[in-house]
Amino acid sequence: RKEVEQDPGPFNVPEGATVAFNCTYSNSASQSFFWYRQDCRKEPKLLMSVYSSGNEDGRFTAQLNRASQYISLLIRDSKLSDSATYLCVVNGDSNYQLIWGAGTKLIIKP
Amino acid sequence: NAGVTQTPKFQVLKTGQSMTLQCAQDMNHEYMSWYRQDPGMGLRLIHYSVGAGITDQGEVPNGYNVSRSTTEDFPLRLLSAAPSQTSVYFCASSMAGTAYEQYFGPGTRLTVT
Q1: Which has the closest alpha carbon to A64: A36, A106, A73, B98?
Q2: Pair A36, A89: CB distance under 8 Å
Q3: Spatial CA neighbour of A11 closest among A98, A103, A97
Q4: Rounded to the nearest 5°, which phi and psi values hold at A40?
Q5: Which of B40, B45, B105 sits opposite A97 (nearest CB)?
Q6: What is the pLDDT along chain B (113 residues), one digit of tens a residue?
Q7: Are B59 and B45 in contact (CB under 8 A)?
C-alpha cells in the first residue's frame, strides 16, 4: 500500500464549480499535513498547511480526519487559473522526511 | 532574494558518466533536500541536510552523493549515471525541517542514454 494515496484524475470541472479531493495516508503517527500545487513542468509550491481543526484560505478549505487517516481539499468557485496538479504531503517517521502523493490533476474548463 | 536556484535546467548524460547538480539558497535555511520526480509517482527524497556539515539519506539514496559545506549550497553528485536515473530533480529548502514550508528550485531535467 502506498503511504500517501491520491486519485490521479484528471478532474475536468467547469469554471465556477466546487471540486473536492481526498488523500489517504498510512502512518497514524504523522503530525504535519500539507497541500502543494504544481503547475505543468514547474516546481511544487505550498498551497496550504492542514490543521487539526480544519482551515480555510479564501476559496480553499482543508480538512483533516485523523480517525480515518485522510485529508481533503475543497476549492469553491473554481477559476481557470486553478488548473494544476495538487499534491498531498504528510511527514514521515521523522521530522526530516516528507511523504508525497503522486498528485491529482485538475483541469478547469471555461 | 533569488530563493532556491538550480543548475543546469536540462542535462543529457551517457551511461557511466558522472555529474553534479548544483543547488543554492539565499534564505539562510538550515534544512535542504533533494528529490526526484518520476511520472505517476510522488516526489521521492534522495538526501537531506539539517545544517552545514550534516547530511543523511532519504528514501532513494543509491547512486547519489551529497555534501553541505556551507549553509547556502547543497550539490547532488551522480556517481555513474544509469538510465534509471532519468528524472526531474528538485532541490528544496526550509527554515528547519519538514514542519515548515518547503521552497523548491525550478528543477533539473536529466536524461541518461
Answers
A1: A73
A2: yes
A3: A103
A4: -55, 125
A5: B45
A6: 789 999 999 999 999 999 999 999 999 999 999 999 999 899 999 999 999 999 999 999 999 999 999 999 999 999 999 999 999 999 999 998 888 899 999 999 999 99
A7: yes
- Chain A CB contacts of B105 under 8 Å are 43
State the Cα–Cα distance between residues A104 and B9, nearest whole angstrom. 25
Residue positions counted in chain A: 110
Exposure string over A25-47, b if 16+ CB within 10 A, otherwise e: beeeebebbbbbbbeeeebbebb
- Contacts of residue A108, defined as CB under 8 A and 6 or more positions apart, other chains included, come to A13, A14, A15, A78, A79, A80, A81, A82, A83
Q: State pLDDT tens for residues A64-75.
A: 999 999 999 999
Q: Which of 66-85 (B) contact A at CB < 8 A?
A: none
Q: Do B42 and A97 touch (CB under 8 A)?
A: no
Residue with cell 528514501: B59
Interface check A48 vs B, CB under 8 A? no
What values do phi and psi take at A58, rounded to 5? Answer: 65, -120
Site from A31, A33, A93, A98 to mutate, B interface, most B CB atoms within 10 angstroms: A98
What are the residues facing B31 on neighbouring strands?
Answer: B94
Nearest CA among B95, B89, B91 for reference residue B10: B89
